[in-house]
Amino acid sequence: MRNFKAQSLFYFSGTLLAGVCLFGHMACNSSLRDTGKNGATTLADRNWEEYGGGPDQSKYVSLTQINKANVSQLSVAWTYATSDSTEYLFNPIVVDNVMYVVAKNYSLVALDAATGKELWIHANLKGITWRGLNYWESKDRKDRRIIFSLNNNLQAIDAATGKSILSFGNNGVVSLKEGLNRDPATIGRVQSTTPGRVFEDLIILGSSPGENYFSPPGYLRAYNVLTGKLVWTFHTVPQPGEYGYDTWPKDAWKYAGGVNTWGEISVDTKRGIAYFPLGSPTYDYYGADRAGSNLYGNCLLALDARTGKRLWHFQFVHHDLWDYDLTAAPQLITVKHNGKKIDAVAQATKHGFLFTFNRVTGEPLWPIEERPVPPSEMPGEKAWPTQPFQPALAPFTRHTVAADDLNPYFTAEQTAQWQKRLAAARTGLFTPPSDQHEIVVIPGAVGGANLGNTAADPDKGIVYISSQDYPSVYKLEKMEDKEARVNGATNNRGMKAYQQYCQACHGENRAGAAGPSLIDLGKRVDPDNFKNVVATGKGQMPGFQHIDEKTVNELYRYLAGDNAGNRFAAAKKEAPVMPAGNVVASGGVPVPETAPFVRGSGMRFYPHDVDTPATRYVSDYGLEYPDLMKPVWSSIMAYDLNTGTVKWRRALGQDANAAAKGGKNTGIPIGSQRKGMIVTSNGLLFATSKGGKVYAFDAENGEELWSADLPWETYGMPAMYEANGRQFIVVSATSPFTKESIDRSKLPGALPRSYVVFALPEKIK
């Protein structure tokens, strides 16, 4: 029980073996689920049934066929080409020898998990949650469902047939825009970037409502998996009479947004407790309209999973002004502490701390100090005077930046420029953003621990973290000044819009940084889809509903270049393209006709009866400089939470540009972002890294035991499972390489974008 609390493979080719029908896959294994006795591996252990492997999100498996002695013999068992140019951040799930993936233009595909043979395809599910799916089955295992979000709706598919379940919700659909204290017609996006969590007969969901002024609130909700009926809602921005209401202005619940779980939910199934890492309140970088500590922003929140009742919480950042939201999965572990066995929960943060609590009471295992931090110099802003620090456990990122910390691989000109900028800037983990000078913080908005970046050996009390040292550079300006600057030069409007809204994540030259490359965007994205993504967001990108249509058109022309003409004009009228294979359905359940979302129709002004700040300020995310500091840029480490010590730490990945200049063990800028780990019971730790690499480490000391080059860059989380007596690990390799990596996708004989599956040679099985 575990608690918590306040070899290169791009030349590979092969023939897939034949499989049996999907019903046969499931039926023939049903009797094995509960046969684990005397340490035997049960069917549930052999599966990877959920995003992250299980409800506790430990990414821990009890499979032992692959071990320290033979892991170096892993090779490609089979691959499955996605047959498109989409980047899939998807964590496959595996149930009873059937693997479910998203491929072929956002189709849900069922595969034989031992061979990769296609079983069925539910085509054209564009808008499906990027990172994973939810699986549920009845106690008699006769009713099996895949539950997922499609755009802003919850839907269900029969796991055996691939067909939509029309008895779920309203003719197969549950709208996620309802019940958020906003007019649903004004909500552009609320769908979470992660799939949620199944517990008993509930599907528990977070959301991704955006990070702008007046974004919807990120209420936590649970729905019945059979009927789609809403069972409970937790108001993360408290309403009058609710606990935490007094940590906001009295009318903030009418306009404040965010405070959402777009990250990873963990569940203690024995106790029925769900743990939510919560995000920042909006607007992220200026909070004059939200004076107070702003519960439940930036909290670890423990709720009764059956009722949504609050059990306890702890807030890691008061009145967040730095986008230090929580995303990494809370890790449920058992530790020996002060001579007692304690079920605990460990939460890793974006700003580089690991906090550990009694899972039931919320009591910290080590003292947490509230330390004074700098005040804000912005008009109307009331930065919180103290912030929590965890002095007993060493942080896993750096917290200071100075001229001596600059990247040694910079040119002399770059070094001189940054020495000058740092001399004029202010730095510090909790130095509030300003309009007078730049603020450089480390780690920044996407540093520290993020999605997929935590794992555990639960019974041993060991937590593994992959992290990145990635500064953010902030500077506030008045919203009206920024809009005037962008709109003032019509001829350069598209370029200015790119610099304002896109450059921080996609890079100065559009080649990609925190976000993907936008080069040749016009060849793969039509104007209508582009407008929709800008308005509603996609993946980790928030929606920008306030950008006027003329600016969006100019932005598209700027990005699409010669491909910005009318060649896509008729595309929206064409029927969906059916992929090759056994297509059993297409498009999910048609969503009932409603008034279309109109850009700019969302909430744009404060309610008339609310006291408002005189000016609204905004800032970029400040993500243009992932390699600002000297290495190590990305790393992986192990904490022993029985003792509160670091067992080991090492670089994760190797930057190709630094290697060309003699650099070793540097990690890679953004090297751990949107990656994942797997822990095995016999002491292996698998991890993926930017650069298209998958590694196996000795979990005891961090020694590298094996690695493989993938044919394409990898994002998302790997999965491990057993099928037909053989242990496999599957990795999504579907993204283009960036400048920090060797581009193996262009080598002779390179594989297409694929799910790549490794195993030991069959003779070792």
Automatic annotation (TrEMBL):
Give the required cofactors.
pyrroloquinoline quinone
Q: Which residues form the signal peptide?
A: 1-18
- Top-rank taxon of the source lineage equals Bacteria
Entries under InterPro entries matching the protein: Cyt_c-like_dom, Cyt_c-like_dom_sf, PQQ_b-propeller_rpt, PQQ_rpt_dom, Quinoprotein_ADH-like_sf
Picking any one GO molecular function of the record gives: heme binding
The protein's UniProt keywords, in alphabetical order, are: Heme, Iron, Metal-binding, Oxidoreductase, Signal
* Matching Gene3D superfamilies: Cytochrome c-like domain, Quinoprotein alcohol dehydrogenase-like superfamily
Kindly give the SUPFAM superfamilies that the UniProt entry links to this protein.
Answer: Cytochrome c (SSF46626), Quinoprotein alcohol dehydrogenase-like (SSF50998)
Q: Does the keyword Iron apply?
A: yes
Name all Cytochrome c domain ranges: 489-563
Q: Which PANTHER family match?
A: QUINOPROTEIN ALCOHOL DEHYDROGENASE (CYTOCHROME C), QUINOPROTEIN GLUCOSE DEHYDROGENASE
Question: What does the similarity note say?
Answer: Belongs to the bacterial PQQ dehydrogenase family.
- What's the protein here called? Quinoprotein glucose dehydrogenase
Give the organism the record lists.
Chitinophaga arvensicola
The record lists the lineage as: Bacteria, Pseudomonadati, Bacteroidota, Chitinophagia, Chitinophagales
